[in-house]
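Following up on my earlier thread - several people asked me to post the actual chain instead of describing it. Fair enough. Here it is, all 314 residues.
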Amino acid sequence: MLLFLIQSHRNPNQIRRLVGLLREGCPSSHVVISHDDRSPPLSPSLFGNDERVHLTTGRGGRGDFQIVDGYLAALRFIREREIDYDWLVNLSGSDFPAISLRRLAGELATTQTDGFLHHFDVLKEDPREMAPMVWPAGHGRDRYYFQYRKLKDHLSAPQRKLLAAPRIAMERLSLPYRVNTAYGLLVGRAARRSPFSGDFRCYAGSYWHAIRRRCCDYLLDFAQARPDVLEYFRYVLIPDEAFFQTVLVNNRAFSFTNHNRRYYDMRGSRHGHPKVLSERDLPEITTGAYFFARKIEAESGAGVYDSLHRIALA
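Reply from S.P.:
Thanks for posting it. Predicted structure:
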């Protein structure tokens, strides 16, 4: 049985369309929507008061720990309400199925893996394992072996340009300080002590995944047992691209397929935002290699929605 966890913050009509499609294509599934509490609340009536659609609140965003907090809060919500499931698939409100949902359910029911989780060692930065991510050399250490404090939420283009020279100089001179301007103004210092070791390596990868229930249970238990690790990750850069991989991949009881089966196009992207997909992308999206595609939004066009809708219900 599948559980789709959607972390959303806007566009209720698109969320309604996605949820309706998931429920029609996987009638036995549950959908949990963790909607940003800074946005207008969603009403159960938007989803026909479906008893298998569950609403809670959390926070999203990128660049800090809020999206991880929201995910873990949703897992606690699921556990407290004893919602039954075998697999959890996490989604954003801009995701859309890229294969038949019946085929997705069948593949997850028969696979031997514990999850489809993109992951790589942040210090080795093997390009083959990292793909489709591309990082400059040493980026993993800069992200996850420094502790950052946010001094300003937003920077203008001139402000980022002004800070470019000291930012680059700190990296090139291997100073124990960093400046990051991708998500506001963050200043970092090399961590005096990190939780990482030969037995607990730092792994990173795409935030989007499909994992078994026992992995979700382990994430919750780990979060309760190791508050020190959570606290450390609160002050790294882009914790959502490393926390889940680090916790799960270091548990040798699990075995993961190192591909999350998601389609996204990062060419020309800034600050980690994939491009909005269009009809030109459909041939690649629909090869059967991917479970979901993102970003699908209004400007993608009706043709994209209609084509993927037909595929999802095939």
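The mean pLDDT is 94. That should answer part of your original question.
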